[in-house]
Fold:
Amino acid sequence: MLILKELNVYYGAIHALKNISLEVNKGEIVTLIGANGAGKSSTLKAISRLITIKSGDIIYEGNSIKTVPAHKLVQMGIVQVPEGRKIFSNLTVKENLELGAYYRKDKKGISNDYESVYSKFPRLMERKLQIAGTLSGGEQQMLAIGRALMSKPKILLLDEPSMGLSPIIVQNIFNIIEEINESGTTILLVEQNAHMALKVANRAYVIANGTIVLKGKAEALLKEESVKNAYLGG
Structure:
């Protein structure tokens, strides 16, 4: 479904991504784990066309998208939940969700998806008229995911969904991630909480200093000594 072929990205003189190659098959949860600054978020931004690619290619459903503008990718089914939520803090919960469906014309489908989002996140239903900036961190993360779902993604790019959240909320968010996947959405998950990410993923890639250093089935990587020592607390 999504293939990255030897992607190279620079920030000025800094070589941030070095020949990154990975693949996400339809229906999978694939996770990209690594330390802070390893290149995880840059990989998602490269896919979403939010940063410039120096060389390499991005193939989506058999076609190169490396020159497709970011806003067109949403209509193609590639939707990102950014690090730090990036909700519209001065708008209500409902207005944030409405913006997730900004390009859609199917009113009945949109109405059904509101109900679907509210069923996944009952808190959002309770607070749908509340200004989003007054929500808790966990509620804002729920809103960011809900807003992305309103775009009807084929593949959802999640950037650090557990960041700054309490363990109970983190478990809830990961349960929802699995539920979204089970309903048919493919997921590429970037996450510092390696243990949680590997528990829900089918396959995983480990990135260090802008390079993929390890890949395999998530279950196997959970038991890999180098991964346990570096990312799972030994």
In short: The beta strands are 2-11, 14-24, 29-33, 55-60, 63-64, 78-81, 155-159, 186-191, 203-208, 211-217.
